[in-house]
Amino acid sequence: MSLLGFSSDGGNTLISEFNSPEGTTAYASLYGKIQAIGSIAPPPAPSPAPIPPSPEPIVIIPAPEPTVIPPIEIPPVEAPWETPPSVPEPQTMLGMIFGLGFLVRTRLKQRSRGQ
User: Fold this and answer.
1) Beta strands in 1-100 (DSSP E)
2) Cα separation of 2 and 44, whole Å?
């Protein structure tokens, strides 16, 4: 038996390596050829890998000198009030929420009636 390779398209394209990136699912079938014992030929010698072209020289450009920005003095700002602002009373907030809800409900009823 000699192995022919992996294929993910029903044997139309065979590749010698099975690639399954981490976190993904890959489907492929393994193809081989069964031969009689006397007809097994040694596998062909692998061809040498091509030598990549030599890279172009790297040109190093010096970084510009850093710009120094002088510190800026910010004068203190006084608050326009004597005490911190107060939070509205809970009853006031409830009244505003109820009024807004009533307004929205009224508008929705008007739109559903086609007015």
Assistant:
1) 2-7, 29-33
2) 12
Average pLDDT, the chain: 78
Q: Can you tell me whether residue 55 is helix, strand or coil? A: coil
End-to-end CA distance of the chain: 82
The position carrying tokens 């409830």 is 94
Verdict on whether the full-model pTM lies above 0.70: no
> Can you tell me which residue has the tokens 């069964």?
34
Can you tell me the distance from the alpha carbon of 32 to that of 5, in angstroms, rounded to the nearest whole number?
A: 7
pLDDT per residue as tens digits for the range 70-90: 888 888 777 666 666 677 777
Cα gap 85→96, rounded to integer Å = 19
- Strands, E, within the chain: which ranges? 2-7, 29-33
φ, ψ dihedrals at 7, nearest 5°: -145, 140
Residue type, 7: S
Count of alpha carbons within 13 Å of 39, Cβ hemisphere only? 6
